[in-house]
Amino acid sequence: GAVVSQHPSWVICKSGTSVKIECRSLDFQATTMFWYRQFPKQSLMLMATSNEGSKATYEQGVEKDKFLINHASLTLSTLTVTSAHPEDSSFYICSASLFDGLYEQYFGPGTRLTVT
Amino acid sequence: AQSVTQPDIHITVSEGASLELRCNYSYGATPYLFWYVQSPGQGLQLLLKYFSGDTLVQGIKGFEAEFKRSQSSFNLRKPSVHWSDAAEYFCAVGNTDKLIFGTGTRLQVFP
Asked: Are the CB atoms for A18 and A83 separated by under 8 Å?
């Protein structure tokens, strides 16, 4: 149980275009989903927290207009990187929160974004 | 400030040897502590977690960790490492709505 999927697993896009990444909780409903960014050989940095039906809460330094997050249902959150540039190339990981006595985060496999 | 420190960036061990990965944290309240493993191209898999109670926590794949409040540490251990344990290991501290990750320790296992 508690499986989280991401699609696509790898995407290449041209500079200036937008790309959407989906995060789905497959076997549970997640009130809260999180989006992280991981640079090579570095830790995960929380970008934003999204609650179903509400606007996402972005961490300091994360551009809201560049990284659009939509959490339309209890099983789906999307991250859209708008007007992508090479510096947006990174590994994006989502997680979904499940309450089992206490809230725990279950992580998706990640999406590798390369902007050329 | 809340933070997690993993002092060892890279550790190399021989298969069958014991392993200890260090994790120190700074957190204002009682922490929830986690260890995750990330294999190349994979998402994070939870190895074990500590919320309260017994300070020695057993996890999957034969891993255990000990919470030492006086030392603000949550070190991960395994008595005998297998080649398949080669991966990146992350310690994290947090609460219900936010996790703070360490920078990770890359484990390399030699046959």
From this structure: yes
State how far the Cα of A62 lies from the Cα of A66, in Å rounded to an integer: 8
CA distance A16 to A105: 33
Contact A42, B99 (CB under 8 A): no
Chosen for mutation from B23, B34, B38 (greatest number of chain A CBs closer than 10 Å) is B38
Out of A102, A106, A112, whose CB is closest to B96? A102
| Model pLDDT for residues B55-109, shown as the tens digit of each residue | 999 999 999 999 999 999 999 999 999 999 999 999 999 876 788 999 999 999 9
The pLDDT, as a whole number, for residue A102 is 65
Structure tokens at B51: 């919320």
Residue of A nearest to B45 (CA): A107
Go through chain B and tell me how many residues it has.
111
Write the single-letter amino acid at A114.
T
Question: Per the structure block, which two tokens stand in for B73?
Answer: 């540490």
Q: Measure CA B75 to chain center.
A: 6
Nearest to A43 among B32, B90, B97 (CB): B90
Q: Please tell me the predicted confidence (pLDDT) of residue B96.
A: 63
Question: Residues B15, B20, B22, B27: what is their CA dihedral angle, to the nearest 10 degrees?
Answer: 120
Cis peptide upstream of residue B40 (ω within 30 degrees of 0):
no
Cα–Cα distance between A73 and A66 in angstroms, integer? 22
